[in-house]
Amino acid sequence: MTDFRPLKLRGEDAEDMAVIAACLQDAVVPVEDMLFRPGSENAPGEFVMVAQRFRWEMLGLDEKPVEGDRYERVLCGITFQGVHRTRLSGIDRKGDRDGLLSLLTLVATEEQGAARIDLVFAGDKAIRLEVARPDCTLEDYGLPWPTIFRPRHPAAG
């Protein structure tokens, strides 16, 4: 394993969220490890999830792993604060409870005093978080574990 420095990031605008999206690309998220905690009339809720994050930061500029053909994943907690509402698309919380989702990206959009964060998963699945403004924290937990599998995407064209 490489020298491990856990990530701890905070996102408060669309630009920050783009950085968080890059760190979470290809994260594996068990459906049972996602939770929306509704708030009250005076305080909005939060959406939390635990992901198995691929450590993209291990790759050099030539996109080769730092140590031979070994890659790493690490558990990562993600919390979105100030969530007023969630909308699921293509995800059945009860039927897919034991399922795994592959996070492709997340996109934050802000307009006219409101914002939304779209979590886009493989297989045409998505979660939309309606928020007053982006407010997200990401934090690695525990030690990474090795994997020989690197996520790959077909070339656009």
Architecture overview:
- The chain is mainly beta and 157 residues long.
- It has one helix at residues 14-24; strands at residues 8-11, 28-30, 34-37, 45-54, 71-89, 100-111, 114-121, 125-131, 136-147.
- The chain has one domain (9-147).
- It contains one helix and nine strands, in the order E-H-E-E-E-E-E-E-E-E.
- Strands 1, 2, 3, 4, 5, 6, 7, 8 and 9 form a nine-stranded antiparallel β-sheet that branches.
- Strand 6 (100-111) and strand 7 form a beta hairpin.
- The longest helix is centred in the first third of the chain and has 11 residues, at 14-24.
- It starts with 7 loop residues before the first strand and ends in a 10-residue tail after the last strand.
